[in-house]
Amino acid sequence: MNCLVTGKYFWLYGAMILASFSACIVMKREYHIKNIILLSLLLTMFSCNSGNKHAKVDVITDVKEQAIYGEVVIRGDDDLILFGEIILLDSLLVLINDRRMYNYGSFFHVYDLSDFKKRYSFGNVGMGPEDFITPLSFKSKRKDGKSFNIDDLNQGRLSKITIINDEIVVDAKTTISPLLYSFDMNLIHDTLYFGKKIGYPQGLYFKYNTVKDTLSWVDYPSAGRRDDMHENYLLYYNKLCVSEKKEIAVVALRYFNKILFFDSEGIVLKELQIGEQEIYPLWNNSTSNVDSTSRFCFCDIDITDKYIYCLWNGSKGSVKSERIVFIFDWNYRCITTLKVDYPINSIKVSNDDAYMLSIVEDGTGLSNIVKYDLQPIWEK
Questions:
Q1: Domain identity same for 18 and 139
Q2: Do 247 and 287 fall within a single domain?
Q3: Residue 364: CATH number of its domain
Q4: Please, which residues bridge with residue 172 across strands?
Q5: Is the residue at 219 inside a domain?
Q6: What is the CA radius of gyration of the chain?
């Protein structure tokens, strides 16, 4: 049994063993020895179970911080675009236009990554095989570097879009029942879906196995959990990314200063806390929602084969804060933090960790794309 007896259980364990051993010496009876062995096993098991139930949280403090400065590479006012999501392919950048649902341009705008010049746009509002209503991109990236997945909530369709030599192929299929009304979707091994649901919150996130046709939920943490599942959904709102290579799900919480790592079966691997003091949301009974004075912790997340990038918002009510990107390796170590110069609200990192793209609103109802060069931080 691989377990360490610690804290108050160590002293309880030692005291009871010492008492039994003393009794054995005085009375010299064999059954006392047997009792010592049995008691040792029971206490060790008790200590192990207690440790699993109250897992130690790794607190992240005194991490190296670096200032990083971005360059606006695409302006939304060029086409009256409000960029909603970023999709990175091998040589192309695809941006989803949130204003298309209000008849402003196409949904998908395609740019060349070498110079960020616009190539073309596509995707109209409708129910046709190549139309969309509310397209949401998957958080996970496809290996081929030429295609991406889209979940359209109102259409009830999942689409795989492939772009090769400027030819666009949309392979759309009706969303199967277990995946209806899902978002923050991730797909690994083409068989395992991870995501969250609108209106049906039963945990932090779900996993759906298409081969076994089974859907399971990862439960909310026990601390602060409420009886009302919808309230838990609001309190534990999070951003989710799943690594196909590592088979690890990473959850960054909006109202807690915590990042959780789970294996493919939903077992907690590690829990990280930013700063010594725990931050937690305040509940407003009159609005049946998280109180507006609660601190906004993490607002986005992205992963590569080497690192995990978590975007810290830090705002509290009307008091704004500088955005910080926490970078972790897959051994759960915080490598560095990046203090960015724009109030960014999303991040997308290249597969080689060479640069990061972010969306920043320009104050007019539109938004711009900012590029951050990451090469200098790896050279330090």
A1: no
A2: yes
A3: 2.120.10
A4: 159
A5: yes
A6: 25
- Per-residue pLDDT tens, the chain, 380 aa: give them: 333 333 333 333 344 434 443 443 333 444 444 443 444 434 344 333 333 344 578 999 988 899 999 999 999 877 777 888 999 999 999 999 886 545 567 899 999 999 999 999 999 888 888 889 889 999 988 888 999 999 998 889 999 999 999 999 999 999 999 999 899 999 999 999 999 998 767 899 999 999 999 999 999 887 667 888 778 889 999 999 999 999 999 999 999 999 999 999 999 999 999 999 999 999 999 999 999 999 999 999 999 999 999 999 999 988 888 899 999 999 999 999 999 999 999 999 999 999 999 999 887 778 899 999 999 999 87
Q: What is the domain extent for residue 43? A: 7-53
pTM score of the predicted model: 0.84
Asked if residue 350 belongs to a domain, the reply is yes
Query: Do residues 96 and 44 share a domain?
Result: no
